[in-house]
Amino acid sequence: MVTKKNNKSKAAKKKKTIDEVEDKNIPKLKSEYVNQVVPEMMKEFSFTNKLRTPIVEKVVVNIGLGEALSSSNVIEAAKNDLQLITGQRPIEKKAKKSVANFKLREGQVIGLSVTLRSKNMWYFLDRLLNIALPRVRDFRGVSKKSFDGNGNYSLGLSEQVMFPEIDYNEIDKLRGLQINIVTTTYNDSESKKLLELLGMPFEDIN
What CATH number is given to the structural domain containing 179? Predict the structure, then answer.
């Protein structure tokens, strides 16, 4: 009889084999990870096994909808924007309890979320790093201080029109996004190097 081990370590839970990405017809950024990022990471951190190399596990894209409390049309408009940007239908995040001071009712939609994995994740990251961020006016790079201490990175964007899928003339309003990049390492320095090698344009503070 096979039983599950209950004493898996933190590292074991986040372990992801690189063999999963070594297949044909993979996204361009994923291919760069396998062929360029992995060897560089192994050299930088003296990894003796490529399976030790961190990888992006998932990307979560969120939109807060505080304005939905006063307008019923906001939710569908935001859903359309987020679906165009990510290629996936968003799920609704609802209030768990009522708050009278904010006129918030339990079960009311207060946000939207999409979790990207596999090919959709890599396609999104490629467009984010190489198309969307460079379109930001007076862009000087993203903050190096937005790691959470567990190898994950958060990025806030002020408007959705930086993505080419969004037509400025068809949106109801400018709307911000929160992007959380989850990696398989709990080490911020490893995560930062991984994102740098993938093309994340961190700001030069020197």
Answer: 3.30.1440.10
